[in-house]
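User: Please predict the structure of the protein below. I'd like the answer in structure-token form so I can feed it into my own downstream comparison script.

Assistant: Understood. Taking the following sequence of 117 residues as input:
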Amino acid sequence: MKHLILLFLLPFVMNAQESEEQKSHFVALYTVGALWDMDKQPNDQPYFKEHSAFLSKLRKENTIVMGARYSDTGMIVLQAADLESAKSLLSEDVSLQNQLFNVEVHPFNVFYKGCFD
């Protein structure tokens, strides 16, 4: 009988373990880098189309939770296992590799949940 009860509880225990492995949120703040030409529009910048495609891929994978701009800064909130994983993932962006943009990545701890429409 004990084995039957344990077998019944196994899915709940496994689900609890998966919850512990949930990803954390991080904010990435993008500013223009050394390669950015102030005389050109964003779409005319080198590596801008690749940057857009990279972010689109992350959105489709549900890695990016939200994106916005304020002042001269672009911001995305993304999910990753830890800070180093978030930085490593973003380092794949060719626009960062070629200094079109600079990025700072920080833990993003929500203390008040809301919604954006």
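That's the full token string. The chain has one domain: 23-107.
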